[in-house]
Design brief:
Helix content is 46%, strand content 14%. It is of the alpha/beta class. It is globular and about 45 Å long. It starts with a strand and ends with a helix. Bound molecules: adenosine-5'-diphosphate (2 copies) and zinc ion (ZN). One adenosine-5'-diphosphate binds next to helix 1, helix 2 and helix 3.
Amino acid sequence: MNIIFFGAPGAGKGTQAEIVSQKLNIPTISTGAIIRAAIKAGTDMGKSAQSYIEKGNLVPDEVVIGIIKDRLGEDDCRKGFILDGFPRTIPQAEALDRMGIKIDVVLELFVPDDEIVTRMSGRRVCPKCGATYHTKFNPSTAGENCDKCGDVLSIRKDDAPEVVKSRLVVYHNETEPLKEYYGNKGLVRTVVGQEKLEDTTKLTLEALGI
Ligand code: ADP
Ligand code: ADP
Ligand code: ZN
């Protein structure tokens, strides 16, 4: 199955994608994670993307389209994949179509803006392995350290409330039109994000029919 996880920043895409990925044994491809890894490694792509990410703006289409083209060409994507955070603009979706990629489901996670802003202040991420936690809703049992690898958890710079607000504006302007784009193809299934992670997971699995 080729799945797109769609929704506002902080709606819970990464969290649910990880669970579905393990269940279906298919990879999750997160453009945000790939870009953050490139920034950390100091590559040319990372350097060119850094200022966009920090301001909460989208990285240019040609950069992310290039990332996705390379990644989808790898062997582990043959039996299916989950896209988390791509496409985020109409030209990105059109590029995916031009690559001949067939999408089976666009799973929308819906969470209202005010809830997102509060929720994002509790997000913690592992700088080493990329695992995501929440201080209240999904805490690491190792406290300030990552359950999976032990590294000290950190707060993403772009999760600061002012940046989250501008990311939401970008989302409504640039990304939300994709709902109609995929809606016209009959591919969108919407799940309303619940306060409890496991409740959202249950609805997500039901919506995907798995
Ligand atoms: P979130 O999961 O909170 O929405 P992501 O990790 O998906 O955050 O993305 C973080 C940032 O990476 C975005 O704000 C944007 O700057 C950049 N980015 C990620 N994916 C894309 C994309 N498909 N197009 C443009 N920019 C992207
Ligand atoms: P996205 O990938 O859409 O940006 P994440 O999966 O990183 O979103 O989730 C954003 C934050 O909200 C994280 O701190 C995560 O632990 C937390 N979270 C995810 N799903 C839920 C939920 N259903 N209820 C409460 N918090 C959640
Ligand atoms: Zn870790």
